[in-house]
Amino acid sequence: MILLFRALARLVTFVLLFTLAATGLAVAIFSLGGSGDLSIPGLANLVGLSDLEENTGRLLGVVEADGSIALRSGLAGLVAVTTGVLLLVGASAPARERLLVLDKKNDKGTLAARRRALSQVAGALVEQTRGVTAADKVRLRPSRGERGGKLSIRAVHSASADPSQIKRDATASLDPLKAFELKTLVRPGLGGSGRRVQ
């Protein structure tokens, strides 16, 4: 839920900043002119500030009146305040990185690894496999629980190598990461413009 609030806060921030930049640009352009249409009073007439003042006065009169319209206005205000609070929560909530837990101790803390670092280690281990020329498309997703995750990696090899042997050897090369309880999927594939072997 926090991720949704954070995404919404970023979208609203972008829209507000774009609107502010466009407004500033318009004011700067209309400030260049001394008088006439290309001036600050001309800009006020163009955007209809006088009409806005009248409409705001009417709106305030409706809000202050008794009855269902005032109730609806109050509910709309409550929704606006709630939306603002949720946007503040989304903007200020800290981003929690999902770590891959190696060992969890109640009092002494947790021994864990970051996803990016562990992905680089997995890629380096696969690249050391005989017949593998490169390791790419490394995807590591921690599980929702406390431990474990899924590791997917593509082992690029030459045309002379046996794909099934490459898959076995590359999978075996990931044994040092067994303590993280990862479900590994190694996909052999030809390098360069060659055909990818699944």
Q: Could you name the ranges where pLDDT drops below 50 across 5 or more consecutive residues?
A: 193-198
Overall mean confidence score, pLDDT: 77
What is the N-to-C succession of helices and strands?
HHHHEEHEEHE
Q: Write down how many β-strands occur, each being a DSSP E stretch of 2 or more residues.
A: 5
Largest sheet: 3 strands, mixed
Could you please describe the fold and organization of this structure?
With 198 residues, this protein is α+β, with helices and mostly antiparallel strands. The protein folds into two domains: 2-92, no CATH class; 100-190, Cation efflux protein, cytoplasmic domain (Alpha-Beta Plaits), CATH 3.30.70. It has six helices and five strands; from the N terminus they run ααααββαββαβ. β1 (100-105) and β2 form a beta hairpin. α1 packs across α4.
Topology, please?
Blueprint: H1 2-32, H2 40-47, H3 49-64, H4 68-92, E1 100-105, E2 109-113, H5 115-127, E3 132-142, E4 149-157, H6 163-173, E5 182-190
Parallel strand pairs: 4-5
Antiparallel strand pairs: 1-2, 3-4
